[in-house]
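Task: sequence design from structure.
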């Protein structure tokens, strides 16, 4: 089980990401289309945390809309294909704020979301083999660049899809 503190993009960017998920699926690859996921950018991921304590500590996420630009397609180990988000100052500052506020309450936080380790991204697909990665990247690449804003956020359970707005 994993939970996260995430930010959700505006409607236009969310629709664009969903269209990429669909294009990846149409290319014969498993994508996040049809799952419990909705487009999001994760600031924190951990095995668990106290939702109420984290909500009190973090307050609104993001505190104000944050401009984001998806400018690359990347691949993490395990066949995770993602939209790489340009690491602009406002985004990095919000990430540090949320990480610092939530840190005392996290159980087994994922180290690759820690400040100075984090690669801001929006996931497109997970668990792909090499051939699928190639097809997914090709399907997604024609959609770049994308721009929008992170306009709201919350706590999200990656396994159940349960969301608590912050």
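Answer:
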């Amino acid at each position: 089980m994993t939970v996260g503190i995430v930010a959700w993009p505006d409607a236009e960017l969310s629709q664009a990401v969903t269209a990429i998920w669909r294009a990846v699926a149409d290319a014969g690859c498993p994508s996040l289309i049809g799952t419990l996921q909705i487009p999001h950018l994760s600031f924190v991921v951990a095995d668990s945390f106290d939702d109420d304590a984290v909500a009190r500590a973090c307050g609104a996420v993001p505190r104000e809309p944050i401009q984001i630009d998806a400018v690359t397609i990347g691949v993490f180990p395990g066949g995770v294909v993602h939209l790489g988000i340009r690491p602009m100052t406002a985004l990095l500052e919000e990430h540090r704020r949320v990480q610092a506020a939530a840190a005392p309450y996290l159980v087994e936080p994922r180290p690759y979301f820690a400040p100075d380790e984090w690669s801001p991204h929006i996931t497109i697909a997970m668990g792909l083999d090499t051939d699928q990665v190639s097809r997914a990247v090709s399907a997604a690449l024609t959609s770049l660049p994308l721009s929008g804003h992170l306009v709201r956020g919350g706590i999200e359970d990656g396994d159940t899809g349960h969301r608590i707005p912050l």
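The mean pLDDT is 97.
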